[in-house]
Amino acid sequence: MGMHIRDERQMKALTGLSQAQFNHLLSVFSDIYQATQQKTYEKGLESGTRRRKPGGGCKGKLPTIAEKLLFVLYYYKTYPTFDVLGTQFDMVRSKANENLHKLSPILYDTLVYLEMMPYREFSTPDDFKAALQGIDQLIIDATERSYRRSKEDAKQREHYSGKKKSIR
User: Fold this and answer.
1) Torsion of CA 88, 52, 33, 122, to 10 degrees
2) pLDDT tens digits, residue range 154-164?
3) Alpha-carbon gap, residue 22 to 66, rounded angstroms
4) What is the dihedral of CA 13, 17, 23, 27, to 10 degrees?
5) CA 131 to CA 122: how far, in whole Å?
6) N or C: which end of the chain has fewer CB within 10 A?
7) Quick one: which of 3, 7, 30, 31 has its CA closest to 18?
8) Are 17 and 8 in contact (CB under 8 A)?
């Protein structure tokens, strides 16, 4: 493995998951990865661009499914630059970028399948309320941005934030 994990504490620090959680996620990630590879293979056969059988060719720096999952989880837990990510997994930054963009959709599909992916958008306020059912407190981390207001009084009122003046 490109990265040696010594214990449970280090596993949580690097991925945000315990070893048991990682193993559970790995089984589904593996199935979705294999299905994705099969689709890619079939598309290659149909278009006539496929030159090798599945599993042929260079093995790369992430030869096992566990290393692929560790790679993508490590990235999303720590957000290193691609230079740092490549160094951690013994690959150049362009391959780190390529691998991340290949594996991220598979992790996303895995989390959706396991119903662990949080909602990002709500179409109605009722959908938002339903998603927060049973939650007592909501903390929103937001940044206020200044807005150029119109000279017209009626349009100014539409965009008034409630502050008397901006702090600079």
Assistant:
1) 100
2) 887 777 767 76
3) 9
4) -120
5) 9
6) C
7) 7
8) no
